[in-house]
Amino acid sequence: MNFRTPAVRLGMLPAGIALALSPSFASAQDAAAGTTDLDRISVTGSRIRAANVETQQPILTLSRESLEKQGFSSVADVLNNLTSAGSPAISRSESLASGENVGGYYVDIRNLGAERTLVLMNGKRLGATTSGLQDLSQIPMGAVERIEVLKDGASAIYGSDAIAAVVNVITRKNVEGGEATAYFGQYGEGDGNTEQYSMTLGATGERGSLTLSAEYNKADPVFAKDRWYSKDGNLGPNSTPASWSALSQNGSWCNPTIYNCGSASAVWQTLNAGGDPLNAADYHPLTQNEWANANQQMTALTGVERKSVYINGTYDFTDSISLNTDLLYNERNTFQQIAGYPYQSRSFLTPLSGDSVYNPLGQDVDFRRRLWEVPRTTESQLKTTRFAPTVSGFFDFAGKTFDWDVGALFNRNESIVTSHGDASLIASEQALGPSFINSAGVATCGTAADPITNGCVPWNPLLPYGVAGAGSLADPALQEFLFPTFTTRGETKTTSFTANLAGSIVTMPAGDLGFAVGVEHRKEEGTFVPDAFAQSGMSTGLGQKPTRGEYELDEAYLELNVPILSDMPFAKELSLNMATRYSDYSNFGDTLNSKFGVTWRPIDELLVRGTYAEGFRAPTISDLYGGLSSSFERYIDPCGVTAPGSVAGNAACSAAGVPANYVQLGQGGNPCTTLPCATNDQFISGANPNLSPETSKSTTAGLVWSPRWVQGLDISLDWYKYEISDMIIADSVDRILRDCYVLGNSSRCASVVRGPAGNITALTYGTANLGKVETQGYDLGVKYRLPEMAIGNFSIDWQTSYLSSYDEEGQNSAGETITIGQVGTPGLFRVRSNATVGWTKGDFGVNWTARYYSGMAEDCIDIGCTDPDRYQNGEAAPIRKTGSNTFHDLQVSYTAPWDATIAVGANNVFDHRGALQYSAPNSAFAYYGGFDVGRFLYMKYTQRF
After folding, report:
1. Strands (E), 660-792
2. In 21-169, which residue ranges form alpha helices assigned H by DSSP?
3. Distance of CA 52 to the CA centre of its chain
């Protein structure tokens, strides 16, 4: 049944499916009768039911049919393919990422951050990490009926986090019969094998229904050594040994009798081929050709495995009271690998003891050795249990029908992160300490008078990888002693209780004055407990402290829909929608946020809409109560002579002891060849209990046009604008260094520690309400189903997002507040556009999709600086521009007579390669993390019964 008028056939939320948006409003009578009461229809973004179901805000609906025509096997992949989606948060390409969010799959609408897009499942929140990220991998693809994306702020309706958008994943229910699907795919290089099996079974009775969906999905990792952009190093195909890491698997040491081993002039030497490791004369200075290409051991795409079971049940107690329940269990496992740890003895005060049987000098010596034999691996497991019951119904009073519901949500996420490949500093100190040859001729830790008997095996870090010999790191016993398995555990709980009432207050000349009121109580709890080694700092891994916290809130909302004019010249419809929500938090106080919308239909075929919304995002548990953690940051030191806009030699740099000719140093104390450059030392970051909520204002205006003289054509155009203030952001390394050395703010220099060569050896920073962003742009949607022809049926779906501005607040070298335009920087594409052409004839179908990304620009390095003389806000800002990219997808399907569908396809069918991005945006490599990494071929078989 079609509930829409021809004027908005497409581009708006289809009214016929709107009932499932909010299970809290489901009517038992509707379910029993199998029909829909036109007077009681609800839409996304509104709690009110009305006969006219057009919405004041832009909503994109992805039907199950459209999902099946794409070659993606996860909800997150589908959403990140939307033109309005920003850079993926912690993408599968970010193998260097760490912490509790690693392994999850998130969506970022409008490039405002994944934590500012609220994700719902059947109208209720997904559980979030302590950082506020909602993992879409917990939703099985086979259970999805459709996905609806409200591309507008909606805090007045949904509360915190609904700043940029709301994603509502609607699952299947009232299924009769069954469906089984098998999916297989792999990249053209023969890796990244993906397999998925799902089954959905359902039965309906006179008073209820039961639907069960089970799914198994596994995608193997892809390794960097097997991709053109990563196998040669961080400069892609332009990499040379000079761009590799001097912390090599060819162990090197510094002779303290000749050199000052703590200075930049120190010479590090490695063993000659066939040389005697105990003969100090059998070593030569380490050359660049002996440096390490760490990418050879890294994953380019994280591996993932998911198992999930979803159950939906409905039961009609009476004709006016019904029960709806959702039960979900999901288990997700991810795998990532990076190169063996670049061990530097000076960083841990663990030299090779002069009393070690492997010391060639007879006195303590410092060494460098990448632990190549044992790559660092991380396996992240997330178990999700979700139970969401709702009792709903309706009653009549004074000639009006009122809908009510009471519901609850219990969501629990348990995470276990298991890592291996970082060395225990307790063990390494013993393995590098004094040792002796026992009576059996075996090297033993300790001394003859006091041997160490805890399983210690003496280690010779000067023995290069692949060279056999005593003390080799290839020895399984030594590996077992040095490398324990680390386990980090976390848990988050979301508990909420809701009650809603909706109906009509009075009938006005233009229609019913609708209302909705409701209350909600919610509690968020979270813990994240790192391994004891990480907490104590007694391993080579990144240090972390526990995160523990909780908060509660009580909320109440009111929404009104006021019809003003109806069925009049140039006013077929004119109505206003108003909503306000009061939120009272236990940790920071209260807030009131409102929203206003207008709908005007001057003629039947044209709809004009607009909204204004206030929004907020409460600080997360991690923001407020997170423990200290360490990381190796990528940054640009403005005191380095190679930095864009360098201030080398100015008063602040000189006062910090930085030489006027200083070149920023990276790993191994070697000059950085690309900027930003990874630090050689761990920096410390932490939480801030004094944070306040972020606030936002969003405005949209748009129109939907369905010309009556072109049947099947619908065009929508929407403009949007967001302003976010007091953004909770990490007080970045680059911001601190700019404030200290460029702006001369000496108070910001206190946490910066520099070494004798001028390099930064330590830095501490936290989070703060420092950010401010303004962005605006346009969304264009064109859908056209051509008239039926003898050669088949054709359809066109063209979605385009144009980013006209994305401005962040910053400061110039004079300390003045300026606006920094970011459009065109990696991930912030000026234009993203998807165009799909579909063809069907009988049982055959073909879909072709072209995905377009406009060009990007990044800071210059020595390679390919296209605009070296560029200025921005009166300062030098040279950039390197790259061209646009288009990826093409193809799927061919056949519906068999035995009620099955067979589909084969390819994503990135022409194996297009995106441009190199040396800043490694959303990736650990010189390639944008949102681009295809090869041609992906797949086959899918679906059997219905």
Report:
1. 677-678, 683-685, 694-705, 713-730, 752-754, 760-765, 767-785
2. 28-33, 64-68, 75-80, 155-158
3. 37
CA dist list (Å): 59 to 26, 168, 273, 533, 926: 21, 10, 66, 48, 35
**Alpha-carbon distance 824 to 565, whole Å?**
44
CA angle 371–377–378, rounded 5-degree value = 145
Q: What's at 61, amino acid-wise?
A: T
**Which residues face 580 on adjacent strands?**
558, 594
pLDDT band at 366, cuts 50/70/90? very high
Place of tokens 């023995």: 463
Task: Count CA atoms closer than 13 A to 580's CA, side-chain side.
Answer: 3
DSSP state of 248: -
- Closest Cα partner for 268 from 667, 758, 756? 667
**In whole angstroms, how large is the CA radius of gyration of the chain?**
30
Distance CA 843, CA 892 (A): 11
Q: Which two tokens stand for residue 73?
A: 């096997």
The mean-pLDDT minimum among 211-225, 332-346, 666-680 falls in: 666-680
DSSP structure class, residue 109:
B
With H, G, I as helix, E, B as strand and everything else as coil, classify residue 366: strand
More confident residue, 371 or 630: 371
* Three-state SS at 158: helix
Mean pLDDT of 761-781: 89
Give the model confidence (pLDDT) of 518-567 as tens digits.
999 999 999 989 999 988 889 998 888 888 899 999 999 999 999 999 99
Instruction: State the Cα angle at 546 between 378 and 727, rounded to 5°.
Output: 90
> Which residue in this structure is represented by tokens 């979301």?
494
d(CA 902, CA 894): 5
| Alpha-carbon dihedral sign for residues 914, 918, 924, 929 | negative
Note if the pTM is more than 0.70: yes
State both tokens at 354.
């002069």
What token pair was written down for 704? 């939907």
Beta bridge partners of 696: 615, 724
pLDDT(118) > 90: yes
- Distance, in Å, from the CA atom of 490 to the CA atom of 701, rounded to the nearest integer, reads 43
Of all residues in the chain, the percent with pLDDT exceeding 70 is 93
Beta bridge partners of 547: 528
Q: At residue 32, does pLDDT exceed 50? A: no
Nearest-5° angle of CA 483, CA 489, CA 493?
A: 170
CA angle 941, 943, 945 (to 5 degrees): 175
User: Can you say how many angstroms the Cα of residue 244 is from the centroid of all Cα atoms in its chain?
Assistant: 28
